[in-house]
Write a structure and sequence with these properties.
- Helices cover 38% and strands 23% of the residues.
- By secondary structure, it is α/β, with parallel strands linked by helices.
- It folds into 3 domains: 230 residues, TIM Barrel, CATH 3.20.20.60; 77 residues, PK beta-barrel domain-like (M1 Pyruvate Kinase, Domain 3, Beta Barrel); 117 residues, 3-Layer(aba) Sandwich (Pyruvate Kinase, Chain: A, domain 1).
- The strands form 4 sheets. It has an 8-stranded parallel β-barrel, surrounded by 6 helices.
- The longest helix is centred in the first third of the chain and has 18 residues.
Length: 470
């Protein structure tokens, strides 16, 4: 039984690419495994997918798999000597010429950048370590002035904060990777380089309902269009590392809180990602600041927190997950967390489903029920139950294995596979059997059950029932 409400996403890589380590990561607290398609070959992804599904069968727990698409990568070309040094105030040139760069110019083989930049725009290189201001721009070259001192080297990444680039979020590589991910049957697809809702819409045309779509919020333009993106995506990821490159670092913590709050109102799960326990790549314990960072995301009400290099390439992948689980558990046992949870409850929307879930929450609080059991086919009922962040446990019971896996990302939900209820008595029997097996309720406890009549009809949640555990 997953004891913490907040879920954990772990990125797989060289440090965690065996069935044995994946099993240990799951036991330590992982709910979702992230396959990073920026690295690895198709056979590597197939192997990881097979390992996860094998572990899932062994543990008899739904496990979610997230396929993270690389997206467009804007990079410098190469240099004659591999690297150069520039001083603040120095004039420089970027152009489309293929020759290796030197102390006067560097190749920037992306026509989209030259089409998008204007005078006074900033160009950031190597995660913002080098900054330039555009003084003059043409179709194939631009004059810039260095705002910082430092080095440029081969194929470093390029960012244009605030500029809308005429480029699709889906590259040819992404489309190939997407076909593989859908063929494997992954549960979530994460879309990189989202600039606006049209990027999510393009992916939706391909994915349809085969997987949930996570829009990665990496660029300021995505924040500008957040409401429209939330209307189209199934979930969002706060990619703080990339946001911190194109935005002032001091703006990111505030944005994190605002994104979580807005996504919760929409009922969309949120993942907080990047550099959460980064020091554990090389060390067996995190810094106190990192522990506080994870705790803050939990206090904010995020659905999940994510480990990247810590589990992909780190020396202590299992310890990193265990530490994250301990931090989450510590927060969720605190009275301050419960107070914030109570203060953050949302008013239900004017829909039948929200009215039913509001009644279920009220009933659970009134009778001190330890759990709310939701029968769900598509998962929408369980999503609504979680949006209110109740104190009670939530069991999402579904006959659909894909729904069960997708729910592994959602705050507070323990998803369980079950055959669809045949009638009311069968529904009660299955609910009671499940909560007893999970150790959530004991004999004579009362639990709250929600379902849709007639049974097996998606999106028809219209029943609340109070059941005594025998």
């Amino acid at each position: 039984m997953k004891r913490t409400r907040t879920k954990i996403v772990a990125t797989l890589g060289p440090a965690s690419s065996s069935e044995e380590v994946i099993s240990k990561l799951f036991d330590a607290g992982v709910d979702i495994f992230r396959m990073n398609f920026s690295h690895g070959e198709p056979d590597d992804h197939r192997k990881l997918h097979a390992y996860i599904r094998k572990v899932e069968k062994q543990k008899q727990r739904p496990i979610a798999i997230l396929a993270d698409l690389q997206g467009p990568k804007l990079r410098l070309g190469v240099f004659e000597d591999g690297t150069i040094t520039l001083k603040a105030g120095q004039k420089y040139q970027f152009d489309m010429e293929p020759e290796p760069g030197n102390h006067h110019r560097a190749p920037l083989p992306h026509k989209e950048i030259f089409a998008a930049v204007s005078t006074d725009d900033q160009i950031l290189i190597n995660d913002g370590r080098m900054r330039f201001q555009v003084t003059k721009s043409h179709d194939r070259k631009m004059q810039v002035i260095a705002l910082t001192s430092g080095t440029l080297s081969n194929r470093k990444g390029v960012n244009l904060p605030g500029a809308h680039l005429p480029i699709s979020a889906l590259t040819a590589k992404d489309r190939k990777d997407l076909r593989l991910a859908l063929e494997l049957g992954v549960d979530w697809i994460a879309l990189s380089f989202v600039q606006g809702p049209e990027d999510v819409a393009d992916l939706r045309k391909i994915v349809k309902k085969q997987a949930g779509i996570i829009a990665k919020l990496e660029k300021p333009l995505a924040i500008t269009h957040l409401d429209a993106i939330l209307d189209l995506a199934d979930a969002v990821m706060v990619a703080r590392g990339d946001l911190g490159v194109e935005m002032p670092p001091e703006a990111v913590p505030v944005l994190q809180k605002e994104i979580i709050a807005k996504a919760r109102r929409k009922g969309a799960p949120v993942i907080v990602a990047t550099q959460m326990l980064e020091s554990m790549i090389d060390n067996p314990a995190p810094t106190r600041a990192e522990a506080s960072d994870v705790a803050t995301a939990v206090y904010d009400g995020t659905d999940a927190v994510m480990l990247s290099g810590e589990t992909a390439v780190g020396d202590y992948p299992v310890q990193a997950v265990s530490m994250m689980e301990k931090i989450i558990s510590s927060v969720e046992r605190s009275s301050s967390w419960r107070s914030l949870l109570a203060a953050s409850k949302r008013e239900p929307e004017n829909t039948t489903a929200d009215a039913v879930m509001a009644a279920a929450h009220l009933a659970a609080e009134t009778i001190n029920a330890p759990v709310i059991v939701t029968y769900t086919s598509s998962g929408s009922t369980a999503f609504r139950a979680a949006r209110e962040r109740p104190f009670e446990r939530i069991i999402g019971m579904t006959p659909n294995d894909h729904t069960a896996r997708r729910l592994a990302l959602v705050w507070g939900i323990t998803s369980c596979l079950t055959e669809d209820a045949q009638d009311m008595d069968d529904m009660v029997r299955k609910a009671v059997k499940t909560v007893k097996r999970e150790g959530i309720a004991e004999r004579h406890d009362r639990i709250v059950v929600t379902a849709g009549i007639p049974f097996g009809s998606p999106g028809k949640t219209n029943l609340v029932r109070i059941v005594r555990v025998d």
